[in-house]
Amino acid sequence: MKPEEHMQVDTKALGKVAVLMGGRSAEREVSLMSGNGVLAALKSKGVDAHAFDPAEREMGELRKEGFQRCFIALHGRFGEDGTVQGALELMGIPYTGPGVMASSVAMDKLMTKRIWVAEGLSTPAWRQVRSADEAVAAFKALGSPMIVKPVREGSTIGLTKVTSEAQCAAAYELAARQDPMVMCEQFIAGDEVTCPVLGTGASARALPVIRIVAPEGNYDYQNKYFTDDTKYLVPCGLPEGEEAAIQALVLKAYLTLDCRGWSRADVMIDAKTRKPWLLEINTSPGMTGHSLVPMSAKAAGLSYEDLCVRLLASAALDNAA
């Protein structure tokens, strides 16, 4: 990020702001952590910011109470999947992050992969499965190890890495409890990295890549949010040229889905070929003390507080009057 891109924002001009947090998804606990962090940061910068939990209040109260823009700190369903974005569009209240269509598509890992493949972007092979038997068939086709996961869930919830046919049934059942749509995905062995993007259209920029080193390579829900055992390397320490290639891939993936504001893409680098493979893109990334977008932004010279203000200032509508 260039120094001139660290824009100055008149926080008073941002008006009355609702930080949407909590919600009804399986990621409610993490969303509350993200939202409270964002709320404190915005208040420290003089923003008239207030907490708003859609699980406890009707969305219509946003308009009744005169909120002028929303910072979406919701994760998962009913927050990151286009539903809240659609409600805010109807009320005419600008919000952070991608719009209705981009949010909805990005939440659906199958649709995301189909678009990326159509655009020539690399993503691991996959199969949609509707039963334990189909999961076994996918294992035979994709090989071992294989990842089994819900199509429309985040934060590795309901995800299993299987190494034998005998594990497929339990893995399918676990994923299906989270979402009736389940997918099996080829496992890419190698470095796990993530890369945020800030901005819209031609002004969108990829931030520094973060390399993730989790205990025993297991970057699960617990190791993501509730332990200090996972190492996050920024600078990422990748071979020369690889970081730039990953940033270019992630930026193209972001623009292909018509994302705006911000998002974060997860990538695996094949240990043998060093080829990067797109896993998924998160359109309302975490903003907790363990979260990766603030970490990457800090490496680019942007503090947590300034990041929150910048994102809030980018709040927009798909269909502005």
UniProtKB/TrEMBL annotation:
Is-annotated flag, keyword Signal?
Answer: no
EC code: 6.3.2.4
Q: Which pathway, metabolic or otherwise, does it act in?
A: Cell wall biogenesis; peptidoglycan biosynthesis
Localization of this protein: Cytoplasm
| Necessary cofactors | Mn(2+); Mg(2+)
What is this enzyme's catalytic activity, as reactions?
A: 2 D-alanine + ATP = D-alanyl-D-alanine + ADP + phosphate + H(+)
The record's InterPro entries line, in alphabetical order, gives: ATP-grasp, ATP_grasp_subdomain_1, D-Ala_lig_Van_CS, D_ala_D_ala, Dala_Dala_lig_C, Dala_Dala_lig_N, PreATP-grasp_dom_sf
Recorded hits in Pfam families, A to Z, give: Dala_Dala_lig_C (PF07478), Dala_Dala_lig_N (PF01820)
> Which molecular function GO terms apply here?
D-alanine-D-alanine ligase activity
Residue limits of the ATP-grasp domain? 113-313
User: What are the protein's UniProt keywords?
Assistant: ATP-binding, Cell shape, Cell wall biogenesis/degradation, Cytoplasm, Ligase, Nucleotide-binding, Peptidoglycan synthesis
Query: Main localisation, per the record?
Result: cytoplasm
UniProt keyword Oxidoreductase, yes or no: no
Record function comment: Cell wall formation.
- The family this protein is said to belong to: Belongs to the D-alanine--D-alanine ligase family.
| Protein's recorded name | D-alanine--D-alanine ligase
* Organism field: Hydrogenophaga laconesensis
- The gene name on file is ddl
